Structures are given as structure tokens and as C-alpha cells.
Automatic annotation (TrEMBL):
GO terms for cellular component: cytoplasm. It holds the Pfam family Staph_reg_Sar_Rot. Residues 1-130 form the HTH marR-type domain. Gene3D superfamilies: Winged helix-like DNA-binding domain superfamily/Winged helix DNA-binding domain (1.10.10.10). Signal peptide: none annotated. This is HTH-type transcriptional regulator SarZ. It is found in: Cytoplasm. It comes from Pseudoclavibacter terrae. InterPro entries: HTH_MarR-typ, Transc_reg_Sar_Rot_HTH, WH-like_DNA-bd_sf, WH_DNA-bd_sf. Keywords: Cytoplasm, DNA-binding, Transcription, Transcription regulation. One of its GO terms (molecular function) is DNA-binding transcription factor activity. Its main location: cytoplasm. It comes from the Bacteria.
Length: 146
């Protein structure tokens, strides 16, 4: 069953991240927020939620804990106070070097061996995500018609 294999691989990957991040007191979702901010810079809460596929009920408490830990700052946008922007603090920026070993450890953990194999897997998983989301959207649309 493909669904179980995907579920098991996802759980094993999350567990590996959890073990690697635990010494620094970070959770996997917190690490993902940091990665987005390291790579793309300041983001609105809405954009972070879209990129990470997290709803506001999950993301808001996560960001609150990260702000309390001094990793990020949250500021209402001057031109539109409904928008909250999230940015890294100096401490959040500094964590990048402390966590730089994680991507290579995870890559090694895949057992794929080459960068090409990893890139091919990533493309396959991204395609799978897109097509499964389209399938779910179609099921939603069909359910609304019935």
C-alpha cells in the first residue's frame, strides 16, 4: 500500500528531525519556519501558513513560542495592521550555522547516495503532493454538488 509507505516514511523522517533538533529545544515545525525565513527573508503570517501548509490555529501558537524564545519577531505592518510580518532575530539568524549539519544528515538518512537521486525523489514527491491535492479538491467539489 503506497499510502502506508508514505505515512511510515513521513513519520520516520519527522522522528529523525525531532532527534536532531531536540538538543536545541526546537520542534520540526519551528525548524521549518526558520528554514523559510533563512531562505526567503521576512514573511507575513499568511504567507508562512501557505508555504508550510499550516492553518492559523497551528501556526499562531508556534510563532508565539518562537517569539518568546527570541528566535523571531512579529510586527504588525504599518500600512495594514491586519498583516503580521515575521522576521528572524539575531538569535534566529545565528541558529542557521548551528543547524547547518541537519540537511546533510537527513540526506544521508535517505540512503539515496547521490544528489541526482535526491533531486529526483524531491520532484516525485512535489508532483505527488500537487496531484493528491487536486484529487482532494475534486472530491470536495463533487461532494458539494451531491
Amino acid at each position: 500500500m503506497i499510502c502506508f509507505s508514505l505515512y511510515a516514511a513521513s513519520r520516520a523522517t519527522s522522528q529523525a528531525y525531532r532527534k536532531l533538533l531536540e538538543p536545541l529545544g526546537l520542534t520540526y515545525p519551528q525548524y521549518l519556519v526558520l528554514v523559510v525565513l533563512w531562505n526567503d527573508g521576512q514573511q507575513s503570517v499568511k504567507t508562512l501558513g501557505e508555504v508550510l501548509q499550516l492553518d492559523s490555529g497551528t501556526l499562531s501558537p508556534l510563532l508565539k513560542r518562537m517569539a518568546e524564545a527570541g528566535l523571531i519577531s512579529r510586527q504588525r505592518r504599518a500600512g495594514d495592521e491586519r498583516v503580521v510580518d515575521v522576521d528572524l532575530t539575531e538569535q534566529g539568524v545565528a541558529l542557521r550555522s548551528e543547524l547547518s549539519h541537519i540537511p546533510s544528515r537527513i540526506a544521508a538518512g535517505t540512503g539515496l547516495g547521490s544528489e541526482e537521486s535526491g533531486a529526483a525523489l524531491l520532484r516525485t514527491l512535489q508532483h505527488l503532493t500537487e496531484t493528491m491535492q487536486a484529487t482532494a479538491d475534486q472530491a470536495d467539489a463533487q461532494g458539494k454538488k451531491d
